[in-house]
Amino acid sequence: MNDLIEFFKRAFHIIVLAVLLILSVVMLGKSLSFNDYRLSRAVQSIVGPIQKSGAGMMHRLRLGPENEALVQQNIQLLREHENMFIEKTDTTLTEMSRPDSLNTTRVRLYDYTYAHVIFKTTDRAFNYMIVDKGANDGIARDMAVLSPNGVAGVVTDVSSNFATVRPILHPETRISAVVTPANQNGTVIWEGNDPRVAYLESIPQHSEINIGDSVFTNGFSNIFPKGLFIGTVKEVKVGNNASFLTIKINLATKYTDLYTVYLVENLFKPEIDSLKANFKDE
């Protein structure tokens, strides 16, 4: 015991210096401005491993192997949802074909993986998250990001081992959505201040929207599958533009408690993007 005390006495200044250096690097990573909405690769490579190590320790303490197995089970269930597939029917007809003989095939459109959040902000004008998987794990830009409760954001930048996620809590985030049971399509946006609340815009004033109605992704983008939960209607009133309603929604994702996220890949996104590249503005 005395030897241990003597060791700490001799190494005290080195230990303090090391702790201060680590704290300085982490605080630098938190204080940088991300006006271009992308995380600097240099800072990510320095801060990322430190945060990943700390997050991994917290993960082992908080979750453990049982919950990790539960995450894997959730992924298997998510992969089998109907909105993960498209139905393709062989419509080639011959003189011998009968309508009831046409073949229908289920083709997988989306696939899932998961990651852990190692850093996030929720109280800034431009919020972001970092997850502990990157290009080496198959993560790519524009992958949808979900929490266990609903939509969380979109991958915006990827390094070898980490990825930056732009959450709903960001002024540039736009999510195409539908409010049910009215079946009206609009766009979910965030106007700052409250990490629990967003807005659904472009809903016509004549629509019958009620408090408690559900808001889901409508599948119009090639990022989010159709039918993913976003939140519930909290408040409805006529907006400044009398043609549309101002609809406040409670977000399903609780960002302050978010640790495990699911990432969704559109397996046909490159093909769809190549077609969209040919669109012309008229």
Describe the protein in words.
The protein is α+β, with helices and mostly antiparallel strands and 282 residues long. Among the domains are: 1-30; 175-253, Rod shape-determining protein MreC, domain 2 (Thrombin, subunit H, Beta Barrel), CATH 2.40.10.350. The chain has helices spanning 2-31, 41-62, 64-79, 269-276, and strands at residues 85-89, 104-108, 110-120, 129-131, 144-146, 151-158, 163-167, 175-180, 184-189, 197-201, 214-217, 229-238, 245-251, 260-266. The chain has a six-stranded antiparallel beta barrel with strand order 3-4-7-6-5-14. The protein has a six-stranded antiparallel beta barrel with strand order 8-9-10-13-12-11. Strands 1-2 form a two-stranded antiparallel ribbon. Strand 3 and strand 4 form a beta hairpin. 29% of the residues are buried. Mean pLDDT is 81; it is low at 32-40.
